[in-house]
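Hi D.,

Good news: the full-assembly prediction came through. Inputs first.
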Amino acid sequence: MEIREERRGAVLIVAPAGRVDSNTSGTFEASVLERAKEPRLLVDLSGVEYISSAGLRVFLMLARKVKETGGRLVLCGMGASVRQVFDLAGFTALFLVEPSVEQGLARLSA
Amino acid sequence: VTPGIDGSDARAIRRLGSLLEVSKALAELVELDPLLKVILDKATEVMDAERSTIFMHDERLSVLRSHLSGQIARDAVHLHLGVGIAGQVAKTLELLNVPDAYADPRFNPRFDRETGFRTRNILCAPLLSRDGRLLGVIQLLNKRGSAAFSPDDETLLLGFASIAAVAIDRARLVAAVVESKRIEESLRLAHDIQMGMLTRRFPRHGVAIHAALQPARGVGGDFYDLVEQEGRTWFAVGDVSGKGMGAALFMAITLTLFRASAEGGASPAEVMARMNRALARDNERAMFVTVFVGLVNLTTGRLTFANGGHNPPYVLRATGALEVLKNADSPALGVLEDAAYADSELDLLRGDGLFLYTDGITEAQAPDEAFYGVERLEALLRGLASASPAECVDRVVGDVNRFASGAPPADDLTVLALRRLQD
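Then the structure:
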């Protein structure tokens, strides 16, 4: 799994790519939770081809941390299969979700 | 006077003899702590020093940790590589002979101040493993008599250090093997405890039920359970996020909560809300568990169910039709303390069946990384319209294992099949 980062104005975009499963979620957790103090965080999931429940857990932890520090978190770019996993676990309602990076940025700068 | 052997030869022979002795003594010891103690005692004796210290290298923290000999056993000292005489030796991996400690800027007099000891001279050598890794550093203080350590002492210490390093390396390897055996043993015990929590008594009254669970890595986070009551039976299948010991503990809590909640429970949604409140409270690690809870009336075949983020089960109609059992999306348990769960209902006719599973089934991978997937599962289930629950379970688990064909399973897999009996 690769994790790309890009800063656009006040927003940090984190873009994991590949599989987020129990083998890779540890790496993902360590690197993404370090970014939880960012006041505006956009996670671009367009490069994620698969996510397991272990991967979902990382998003839950991230959402909690971001909330604790008073930041804002938006997810974007979910493919159909990733979206299905979020939907199935009943997680979609727990996150702010936007279709694209541009819409995610707009949501965060609103 | 012994003819042919002068004083220095006699001393060299005596010293070689003592090295052999050390070598023999060390060969018998496999535990690290007693081994270090003997190394220190022998080093002090053979080198004619007043005190010796071994600093063991902690690769993870990149520091040296002291083991002292002699009368002063103070708390372990931590040194960073490159700092002080021992730190310098750890960094350069070269022996260092310091004839006058207080004249050397690398010498740190703090330990003298704290202990009242007066360091005059130092001889310090690295302890290297066969493959050249730094195991630690051995340091000798104060050559007995007035002189400093000699070039002969340097040669002797290098010989001593290589013997000691072999013994330390071996002790560490033995310790690592013992530790991994111990972990393996405790995982096996945990696996047995976890498997022991799963019921293997399957009812055949009004409905027949069968289930199986195959953990991926010894212990896992899947579970199934049944609670039989007068005229009705509760059943549940769940999947904890993640794997290993943490998931197994969360699974055990979830299973216990299910049993306790079903005991006096009115409906699956109520049971689920109760379990969720308990799991979500103080859930620091954000663990969660997807759960499907069903309650079947043994007389009427009426099924009441609630789904907390779990993959929807299948209804295997006696007619051969295959239906997906959908209901309102509710979150997995443990996420939101006040999450709402809703009951849905479905009538099972005589001969109708139900099939529950965890994603270890559909996400099982063949050696070429292809997923088992829902299409394969559905095709198989279509052929099992009149199969018994035990047969459904065996056929699905067998088919998934054949598909994976020996590839190590990435996730636990669990199936539970139920069929309303004809009479």
